[in-house]
Amino acid sequence: MKILVTGATGYIGKRLIPLLLNDGHSVICPVRDKERAKSYYKNQKKVQLVEADFLDSNSLTNITKDIDAAYYLIHSMTNSAKEFHVLEEKCAFNFKNFIETTSTKQVIYLSGITNDTKLSKHLLSRKNVEKTLASNKYALTTFKAGIIVGSGSSSFEIIRDIVEKLPAMIAPKWLNTKTQPLAIRDVLSFLHKSLGKKELYNTSHDIFGPEILTYKEMLLQFADVRKLKRSIITVPVMTPKLSSYWLYFVTSTSYKLASSLVNSMGVEVIGNKSNINTILDVQPMSYKEAVKLAFKKIEQNSIISSWKDSYISSGKLKNYVHEFINVPEYGCFKDFKKRTVIDKERTLNRIWAIGGETGWYYGTFLWKIRGFLDQFFGGAGLRRGRRHPTELNVGDALDFWRVIYADKEKGKLLLYAEMIMPGEAWLEFKIIDNTLHQTATFRPHGLAGRLYWYAVMPFHWFVFNGMISNINK
């Protein structure tokens, strides 16, 4: 079949598409930034990338109408737009209007469990999207999931941060909220197996794991899997704002996402039983099994997707990485260094391993101080790390940088800074004629930007000089 998949660069989409390709289907991926998506699907002949934005109905004319089925995986977990629910509804409305002009027979939508009488505004928005997507022209199949557990998922990484960093903690009362966590593998099974199932046309099903757990129990079970002893005391005095700051400083999440999560974590996420497990022959695994499986993926360096690579973890970049590929020349400060390459393959491997657990090859304590200051002022800091220890794709998060261009064959890596600063910064590595060029570019915003550059310039001399020397060892 020809299947349209929205959210092709997202956490779910990047894991679902290989399953569809393995079945022999052709996949059409409407993406806002084609340059970013190319690195994920460059060797897939049955993947067609189309630049389109569902907030702009005029851009959808580029998408073929010869479609058999579609997946709606567009979600937002940010508070950056006060009326984000309006934007989500507009996305769904434009998607529906377009799909109704195609030959699509089934739309499969992944939503959130919305059974509590008091829902967060994000869950209310998910519920409204389901109503918007309903149509007489095609059949809608809706799956509603709660907490998704898997390597790279936001819930998994946040819980991991809390458990591994804090031997004892005084935590907000929402840790006593009940939920039914579901493994990412099981989510994908529901989405994958429901394709073309006529008995699921125009139906909605809650999908959930076999246990009802509080967030506190999830933390303690996670600690048990990791063989760590942890103590948790919950207190009722933390306001949502304090809770958001607590989550932000303890974990690798952004403040905006922390705030969204806190608002949602006060809502019980308990699913209504149905016969969906029998229909699709899916028997969801336990929470502990899901955590163990996630760590197997991490140990094998096989994390396919991570929430940190989403733009919701960004302080600056919103949608289009290609807008930052051309590094500005005028009105900029530059720190340029070069070295004759001793071993090209080794040098490239060291460049591609930069950041995360590897570090930045020189002045680690200075990088950590800069990361702490960035986090203090609301930035990402060094907490995001990287998805894979040696692989980089366009759009990947890399500590407080974002990968803008990565081509190992051409010997070029370009990073854009997402740290809080009075200006914009790029860091470029490229090998030309057996010479490694390392260029840090800073475009200041006003007088504050210029003062900032001169203040950090002495540190840059040591850090960047040591970095290129150690990369080229």
- Strand order, largest beta sheet: 3-2-1-4-5-6-11
By CATH, the topology of the largest domain is Rossmann fold
Strand tally, please?
19
> How would you characterize the largest beta sheet?
7 strands, parallel
- End-to-end distance, in Å? 51 Å
GO molecular function, one term: protein-containing complex binding
Domain NAD(P)-binding: 7-139
Organism: Polaribacter butkevichii
Pfam family, one: NAD_binding_10
Explain this structure.
- A 7-stranded parallel sheet has the order 3-2-1-4-5-6-11, with helices on both faces. It has a 6-stranded antiparallel sheet with strand order 14-19-18-17-16-15.
- With 473 residues, it is α/β, with parallel strands linked by helices.
- The protein folds into 2 domains: 308 residues, NAD(P)-binding Rossmann-like Domain (Rossmann fold); 157 residues, Alpha-D-Glucose-1,6-Bisphosphate, Chain A, domain 4.
- Helix content is 36%, strand content 21%.
- The chain is built from 14 helices and 19 strands.
